[in-house]
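Hi W.,

Here's what went into the run:
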Amino acid sequence: RRLIMRSQSSTVINDDDDDGFIIQGVPHLTDFLPDLPSYPNPLKKSQAYAIVKNTFVSPKDLVAENNIIQKGSPRGVHFMRAGPREKVYFLPEKVRACIVTCGGLCPGINTVIREIVCGLSNMYSVDDVLGIQGGYRGFYSHNTVHLTPKVVNDIHKRGGTFLQTSRGGHDTKKIVDNIQDRGINQVYIIGGDGTHKGAAAIYKEVESRGLQVSVVGIPKTIDNDIAVIDKSFGFDTAVEEAQRAINAAHVEAECVENGVGIVKLMGRYSGFIAMFATLANGDVDCCLIPESPFYLEGQGGLFEYIEQRLKENGHVLIVLAEGAGQEYIAQSMKAGNGTDASGNRLLSDVGLWLTQKVKDHFTNVRKMTINLKYIDPTYMIRAIPSNAYDNIYCTLLAQSAVHGTMAGFTGFTVGPVNSRFAYIPINRVTETQNIVKLTDRMWARLLASTNQPSFLGKPEYLQGKFDKETMDIINRMQITSI
Ligand code: ATP
Ligand code: MG
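Here's what came out:
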């Protein structure tokens, strides 16, 4: 079998066999520094790994992207398994690492910072770690802080990021000049899709200057919208914390006549938090996400469903993702066309919009008295420390990143693929976003749980909102109820 371990320009490279076995490897420093010396990995002598049976991950160990395959079908894409390698390409005493955090807040960032520092120190005896403050622009506009296991000892108990963060300010040349000036040779970059585009640019610049600098991204997004990986850190904590807001809205709604509770959760382009928080809760009557268009008026619309639930149950509880229904809001409010410092589209507040629409409809059109309570817990959720599950997950992410950079890999990101940690080419996580696919099972499970309308009964509302394949399925369905 011919293994092709590089995939920078194209993400899909087939090997010679006809079994469709594809390997998407990550770059290595020796790709552009062929004479770089290597050293035996010191881990074998460390207390932590002394008794581990297979201390080092074999280069032949691969992680399959698809774990459900049919006999005889193409084997599909595989990634390199994360973990320590037999050889390292840095002498520990020569390592000067740095950590930077960019983009929005998310529970678990501090745990990742802490575990990179502790992982470098405890596993590889690397003690020179710098914290870059305030996101990408911190490389050239702020002083660094020296990070030791003692300094970061209890930061995982706190929310936010110990290093502060920002949007915008990515200047590749200035950043790489600074990396060179400070003698940094390992760069750990924690952030979302935008941050990873920046990390890829830094890696390219480092390569073109021929520097012995490893660049690794650690994917951070509370929305769980990063492609390839199973789940992003902080997502689990967010779903759990969202329960408090949903439960509060439920209590408010059920204790009054015609109570309507509306909770807005994070999810700009993908509704995973809203979907999982709804599935976890059990009291939610309707979940609205960006991927599933909905409409308010007429048969099968949201107003009809709200009225039905009020008649049946006396109250109704709605959870919606911030990116849901943006197209209708843009039509009615002519808003939502600005961008933030990183170039992300600013969204209009769908929660306030829906609240007003529901009030207007029931008060003016239906002449009904409703009691509506709207809760937006976004910032309260983003700011909490990560839960136990996410802390473990962040620790594994950080240790995987440390093993990868010590082994000389660069221009890569880390994450679990089918629950195995893998090294993934950066472009795989920047070129597409993970969204809720209505044609997959999870959304059907949610509809089956809430019993809400699917809003697919009026195909004229759906034109242009889905790819052709999904639209064909919808057109063939002739849905009457859900
Ligand atoms: P999240 O969306 O989860 O908050 P993010 O990483 O996507 O995280 P952004 O604010 O979009 O957050 O980007 C973070 C940083 O990455 C910013 O400093 C921004 O300048 C930089 N960045 C964004 N897009 C690019 C790009 N295409 N090239 C280089 N740098 C970029
Ligand atoms: Mg982003």
